[in-house]
Amino acid sequence: MNPGRSGYDLCMETGQLVDDTRKQLTRFFNGTDPDRLVFAYNSTDALNLALFGLLSRGDHAITTTIEHNSVLRPLHHLAQYHGVEVDHVPFDARGFVDPDAVAATFNARTRVVAINHASNVIGTVQPIAEIGRRCRERGIRLVVDASQTAGKIPIDVQAMNVDVLAFTGHKSLMGPTGIGGLYVQEGVEIRHTRAGGTGVRSAHRPHLDEYPWRLEYGTPNIMGIAGIHAGVEWIERKGLEAIDAHEMRLMRRLVEGLRAIPGVSLYCQDDLTDHIAVMAFNVDGFEAGNTGTVLDVDYNIACRTGLHCAPRVHEQLGLDKLHGAVRFGIGPFNTDEHITTAIGAVRDIAAARAKKAR
Q: What pTM was computed for the model?
């Protein structure tokens, strides 16, 4: 059932599924051309395609200290081995990147600004439209990592001035692992960095220049595409606004509850405006990994601890010396009971730590 490889019924049905999902996701992100919706393994794979295909020796790229390694490491590699200069703009005390600070870093060789839509550690949603407007004024490509926001809050690549949007299926798009992709705006051309089978124009010796095959190689993840298609259908039935309202209501309860516990430190959670339902905290004097173990073993609460693949966030907050933080993320299936349990569990851990310290 490999699309484009034959003409039997199941192959044709599979090809239709792939085409329908391109159209579905293009509408979801308010794109204009479904052929420029390209599937990849995940957002890390997609970001590698974009960054290695947009930047060349002597170019200048700008990113931030709030990024995930899916942006930081490709840019580090390009700087180390391909002669690309990279600057990192810090976030402010509230967890936001100032568009003017990004623009102040532009120079004549700046080709790309790469930034995540929302932090996977502290949940702050960046002012992408304003950053994008400044990029457009200078002819600089804006690459946005929407791993944390696609399926949580609306994304409009036109209104937000996004040139390349990277997404993954296994988070809030409700799909399986191993599927993601890019939406590439018209007029943005990303160089080939790979080559292989496409199922079309097989006698053509070079890899195809046309989208979507320009950035797709070999047999696609059909089960992943089917999964993301079903996930987006569910999101559209439920409604993004309803999902966000539910998650942020629970998030406010969680933040207020944790803030009231003596010996618990929260990071960039003073105002939940322009946030998604992701937050980081620590129990004072207790390593994040130990807190996570107790939450898992004693309270059956799953959470992520450590540096969350975003080391510069922790370095700027001074958490690298504590081996990171504990992260809670709220999804559409969490309930008030879950929040009550989480607050109670952290209260117990903090109280036990304080008693031991006396």
A: 0.94
